[in-house]
Specification:
Number of strands: 10
CATH superfamily: NADP-dependent oxidoreductase domain
Number of domains: 1
CATH topology: TIM Barrel
Order of helices and strands: EEEHHEHHEHEHEHEHEHHHEHH
Largest sheet: 8 strands, parallel, barrel
CATH class: Alpha Beta
CATH architecture: Alpha-Beta Barrel
Number of helices: 13
Distance between the termini: 24 Å
Strand content: 5-15%
Structural class: alpha/beta
């Protein structure tokens, strides 16, 4: 997800610290990194493994400076880079690279230390651009800053990637593009629904990379409870820990945290749950009322289709946000965090990085979470399901 149209001027709202409407032109707090979907967070740092144990910084909305707020034991917030290099949906141009680098550095300074990318991010001649940019930006950090980051990439199970060695060339290419800063490799999506014979050998190959010390951690994406248990057991038998699972999770896609959902399995097995598209392509970053400007392309069609049914949720988000003096999108992100998931947010500008940092130190009250749970459960507004999501 990405912070849409976050502007550097003083934020406007009835609360003391909200954000200008997210969802206009530009990236959107809705251009999030994704695991096999449209959108798209070691362990001793703020967000690098999704747990913060020290003071956090939040944005002073009118002066664009940061001030300390209370620490939180909730999962952190990660940064998605799906829009970096994507011309088709995000209008990427190399002229944006200096701003992307400034955004990256600001995010690191504010304690957003988990960066998610993929070898398939980037369109046309910019294929692989997201990894290349992230590698270039990491190269500009000092050693201490670099150690504080977790960089995770996802490898796509394309039909021609077969067998235990099917990912070897792709992994090596990702390592080159990332300048060697690769801490976690992830299966980008599950093939269980259309080519079940392909998936396990690829995972065995990734597990071998971990055993060989070529990468520290292994994650998966778009798996349901049944498949996740199977994969976890097979990796455990080979002495490899399954570190994380990415799934689509938001107030408009709450299935992962529903009864019998995959979140409970993650908690039982000690697998970090990562939420992609936590703002539903930017819908949940907007305030209720008239739709106004909509993004071009498929996102605009989605906004028009869901705008009326999503109003009750937007009204609840705005009410909670104004009560706490925070932007509404921060409430949506923290709903994911309150269910034990780390949301990954697509960022492209310094202002967006600063806005995202406001969400880290804010915990939802139990009554607020329960209210949002009920609204999400009965809402008719639903994001399209990921077609690769396994059972």
């Amino acid at each position: 997800m990405s912070l849409e149209a976050v502007r550097p001027q003083c934020w406007q709202s009835t609360g003391s610290a909200s954000v200008a409407p997210l969802g206009g032109a530009g990236t959107g707090l809705g251009g999030e990194s994704c695991a096999g979907g449209l959108w798209e967070t070691g362990r001793t740092t703020l967000v690098s493994q999704g747990r913060w144990t020290g003071p956090i910084m939040a944005l002073d909305p009118c002066r664009c400076v940061v001030t300390p707020v209370a620490s939180s034991s909730l999962p952190g917030i990660g940064v998605g880079t799906w829009a970096w290099g994507n011309q088709f949906l995000w209008g990427y141009s190399p002229a944006q690279d200096p701003e992307l680098e400034a955004c990256f550095r600001r995010a690191v300074d504010l304690g957003l230390h988990f960066f998610d990318t993929a070898d398939s991010y980037g369109t046309g001649s910019f294929n692989g651009r997201s990894e290349s940019l992230l590698g270039r930006f990491c190269a500009g950090l000092n050693e201490q800053q670099l150690r504080s980051l977790t960089v995770a990439t996802k490898l796509a199970p394309f039909p021609w990637r077969l067998g235990r060695a099917g990912y070897d060339r792709a992994f090596a290419a990702s390592q080159r593009r990332l300048g060697g800063k690769l801490d976690r490799v992830q299966l980008h999506w599950s093939t269980a629904r259309y080519a079940p014979w392909q998936e396990q050998p690829l995972l065995d190959g990734l597990a071998q990379l971990v055993r060989q010390g070529k990468v520290a951690e292994l994650g998966v994406s778009n798996m349901g409870p049944v498949r996740l248990r199977q994969v976890h057991q097979r990796l455990a038998e080979r002495g490899v820990k399954l570190s994380s699972l990415q799934v689509q999770l938001s107030l408009l896609a709450p299935e992962a945290v529903a009864e019998g959902g995959v979140a409970a399995v993650c908690g039982e097995l000690g697998i970090d749950l990562i939420a992609y598209s936590p703002l539903a392509l930017g819908l949940l970053a907007r305030r209720p009322g008239p739709l106004g400007d909509v993004p071009a392309g498929p996102r605009g069609l989605l906004f028009r289709r869901l705008w009326q049914p999503v109003q009750p949720l937007l009204e609840a988000l705005a009410t909670i946000a104004d009560h706490h003096g925070i932007p509404p999108f921060a409430v949506a992100l923290n709903w994911c965090r309150s269910h034990g998931a780390m949301p990954i947010v697509g960022l492209r500008t310094v202002a967006q990085a600063e806005a995202a940092a406001t969400a880290v130190g804010f915990p939802l009250q139990d009554s607020e979470r329960q209210q949002l749970d009920q609204l999400a459960r009965f809402s008719t507004a639903r994001m399209p399901a990921n077609p690769f999501q396994s059972r």
